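W.,

You were right to be curious about this one. When I first looked at the sequence I had no strong expectations either way, so I just let the prediction run and decided to look at it fresh. Below is the sequence, 96 residues in total, followed by the output.
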Amino acid sequence: MAYPPAPPPPPQSSPGTPPPNHLPWAIATTILCCLPAGVVSIVFAAQVNSKWQAGDHAGALKSSKNAKTWAIVSAVLGLIVGVIYGVLAAVGANSS
């Protein structure tokens, strides 16, 4: 019985180029959207280049993905809170 071939490995960044750190998005979402999740994104973004230079390429890739994920979480939370605030403000204005 033959086994199917193994799937190809996931794409990697070239050895000389670090992955994107997403720091501008992390800062923007911290200021404009949701402070706690944005700070987490900034922390992960700050780790990318130092891990890459230390030779921890897998750690740099993971920090890059985490920075992006937390920036998205911050943006979504900011939108949700903004919508809820808008609805409550509209209801309060109409009830007066």
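Here's what jumped out at me. Helices lie at 23-32, 35-53, 57-95. And, maybe more interesting for your project: Residues 23-95 form one domain.

Coffee later to discuss?

I.
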